[in-house]
Amino acid sequence: MSRIHLLPDALINQIAAGEVVERPASLVKELLENALDAGARAVAVTLEQGGVRRVRVQDDGHGIAREELALAVMRHATSKLSRAEDLERIATMGFRGEALAAIASVCRLTITSRAQGREHAWRFDAVSGELAPAALEAGTVIDCADLYYNTPARRKFLKSESTEYAHCEEALRRVALSRPEVAFALSHNARNVLHLKPGTPEERLSALMGEAFIERSRIVETEAGPARLFGRVIEPRHADQSRPPQYWFVNGRFVRDRMLTQALRQAYADVLHGSRQPAFALFLTIDPALVDVNVHPAKIEVRFRDSQAVFRFVLDAVRRALAPSRAVLESTDIDGEVPPAAASASPPPRQPDLPYHAARGAAGSRTLTHPAASPFVPAGSRLHDAAAEAAYLAFARSALAPMQEANGSSVGERREKEALEIPAPLAADDTLAPPPLGYALAQLHGIYLLAQNAAGLVLVDIHAAHERILYEQLKEAWDRTPSVQRLLVPLVLTVDAREYASWEEHRETLERLGFDLGALGPEQLAVRSAPSLLVQGTLEPLVRALLHELSEMPQSLAAESFRDKILATMACHGAVRAHRPLTIPEMNALLRAMERTERSDQCNHGRPTWVQLSLTELDRLFLRGR
Ligand SMILES: Nc1ncnc2c1ncn2[C@@H]1O[C@H](COP(=O)(O)OP(=O)(O)OP(=O)(O)O)[C@@H](O)[C@H]1O
Ligand SMILES: [Mg+2]
pLDDT over 70 for what percent of the chain? Predict the structure, then answer.
């Protein structure tokens, strides 16, 4: 066995470089970060052969003084950190003093730099150690040639030129997204590929994510204490790319973080079909003392001091951005031409019923403070609008009643139902703004509802819209005690062993959901009460679906996902079926319920529940000029 000995510096550097420099794109990332730390306003990246032959980064930053050039490529040499305390609040992209040393050990590195106020530039060759005067207007040029020329084994791991190039370009995009005020240029094999002018965050997002993304996404902007979240998230209905761009930045640094990914997934959980992925670019800024960036060799991971709090903050902010119903936001534009900003703007934080106010503006608030005007005009608070709720309940019950008669499964309290008369829709009244989704005209093939609003024609998928409303209401009710209704005649179900076992095991959950079930024997269960929202529906298949769902639910499922799944099942079974004729008042009640319900513009699977056909669009169909 050989003796223990200290490794030579060159070898130490090469080993360390293995962590920092994974491929040409790592050079792009490290050099761009150095340029930004040097205060650059414009950066140009030149690549040859996917960056393997050459990566060259030129900036107009403050430069490196002659006497510090050789030091810059030494390990643990940095200008960004001096005391241990600094490590706890890192505000620069670099801090370890590792990158240039690592890079110098795996390629032919030269640095040309002119420090501010100096007469001319100096060129340092890291291979030979030579230092010579050079010509350069300002800033720094770092040139990395022949990556892995001295470690052929590593060279073998490089992929094709086009793949390596793609990684380089992606590295630049990540940096450029978070620094819109800096200009970036990229050329590959002497061809100019990208030129990004300095601009606003929105302009940069548009340049790098595409205009379509801007049009189809919602703004996220929230601040809470030491944290701020800004960016854009795709509207669920447009989440159709198989590998959409997804960017998380923490204090300007692109990161991969499981907690952040999870928060986003959860924010979309209700509105996005399982296999789809959302496109987004989100920028989280947080007091540097509350996040540790020194946890990964490529600085691509971070650790939050209070990751639970960050999770909640992000989840809440993104959910809110996705929540406001487009029904309410878009309908204010009489021509049906929705200004993209209005359609995609998210409400400021912590105002749950803001969509309504935001849409109607100052003029609309007059209507809102008119509580007695009509049950269809939402009063200040959506949640405690008793009249509107009564109208909705009446709708839900009457809409479902024929189903119950058809299968004879349960008899609710008819008298109570009759007492909840649905008020007729308000006649056009100049003093009141018309409701965003307008008034019902007719039902088409038992599936669609047609309504007229200020912009033109509204088409609603009745089942999908009702399912969504029920789902949101059930979720809301979950946090309170659900309103439960006793059945005059209990519904008796003949069950198999598995259903029986599921009932035994999940009695508490069922109770929590508003179901009171008792055993009449080993093969029979009696449903004695059910949630008021669902009581007139097809109770039997609903209870069976619940028993099955509960028995299959993995133990490990998070409480929230569990709740969402169960409630989705309930909503699906509770929602009015297609081909069930509705009266005009019932349809109007549905429209009003949609306006009051967050996220009612898409069903639980992310499909739209309604569409607007503006008069302009209708005119176009008939080649009719206006
Ligand atoms: N483009 C540049 N302009 C001005 N100074 C630079 C530039 N690139 C590097 N430097 C100087 O060289 C030093 C070493 O750079 P290097 O990238 O190795 O370390 P770092 O940025 O301090 O930390 P890290 O290893 O985390 O990147 C920097 O601290 C900085 O002072
Ligand atoms: Mg650096």
Answer: 79
Q: List the beta strands (DSSP E) in 430-589.
A: 439-444, 448-453, 456-461, 484-494, 516-521, 524-531
| Among candidate residues 296, 322, 348, the one where a domain is terminated | 322
Q: Are both 115 and 238 inside the same structural domain?
A: no
Question: Among all ligands shown, which has an atom nearest to the Cα of 97?
Answer: 1
Domain that holds residue 192: 9-199
Clarify whether residues 168 and 191 are in a common domain.
yes
Q: Ligand 1 atom 10: the closest Cα is on which residue? A: 34
Residue 189 and residue 260 in one domain: no
Query: 569 — phi, psi (to 5°)?
Result: -60, -45
Give pLDDT, residue 169.
97
Whether residue 266 has its Cβ less than 6 Å from ligand 1: no
Q: Ligand 1 pocket: which of 37, 75, 124, 295 to mutate (most atoms <8 Å of CB)?
A: 37
Is residue 263 one of the residues assigned to a domain? yes
Please check whether residues 171 and 216 belong to one and the same domain: no
Inside any domain, residue 411: no
The verdict on 137 and 234 lying in the same domain is: no
- Same domain? 42 vs 171: yes
The CATH number of the domain where 530 resides is what?
A: 3.30.1370.100
Answer yes or no: are the C-beta atoms of 449 and 590 closer than 8 Å: yes
Sheet of 524-531: strands edge to edge?
Answer: 484-494, 524-531, 516-521
The answer to whether residues 607 and 464 touch, using CB atoms and an 8 Å cutoff, is: yes
Shared-domain flag, residues 120 and 231: no
611 assigned to some structural domain: no
Last residue of a domain, one of 555, 574, 593: 574
- Arithmetic mean of pLDDT, 462-469: 87
The most distant pair of C-alpha atoms in the chain lies apart, rounded to whole Å, by 97
pLDDT of 350 > 90? The answer is no
Distance CA 24, CA 20 (A): 11
Instruction: Decide: helix, strand or coil at residue 54.
Output: strand
What tokens appear for 494 in the block?
């003949």
429 Cβ partners below 8 Å, 6+ apart? Answer: none
Task: Give the residue-averaged pLDDT of 523-543.
Answer: 81
Phi, psi values for residue 359, rounded to 5°:
-70, -35
Tokens of residue 266, six digits? 């959860």
Q: How many Å separate Cα 37 from the centre of its chain?
A: 30
Local confidence band at 626 (pLDDT 50, 70, 90 cut-offs): low
Closest CA to 113 of 210, 40, 49: 40
Question: Do residues 59 and 31 lie in contact, with contact meaning Cβ atoms separated by under 8 Å?
Answer: no
Q: What is the pLDDT of residues 126-166, one digit of tens each?
A: 999 999 999 999 999 999 999 999 988 889 889 999 999 99
What letter does residue 116 receive in the DSSP assignment?
T
Across 96-115, average pLDDT: 95
pTM over 0.85: no
Q: Between the CA atoms of 188, 192, 193 and 194, what dihedral angle is there, to the nearest 10 degrees?
A: 120
- Whether the per-residue pLDDT at 355 is higher than 70: the answer is no
The CATH number covering residue 225 comes to 3.30.230.10
Cα 274 to ligand 2 centre (Å): 40
Joined together, the tokens standing for residue 67 give 């006497």
- CB of 270 within 6 A of ligand 1: the answer is no
Q: List, for residues 222-272, the tens digit of each pLDDT value.
A: 988 889 999 999 998 888 777 899 999 999 999 999 999 989 988 998 788
**Same-domain status, 185 and 216:** no
The SS3 call for residue 447 is coil
Is 100 touching ligand 1 by the criterion CB < 6 Å? yes
The domain total for the chain is 3
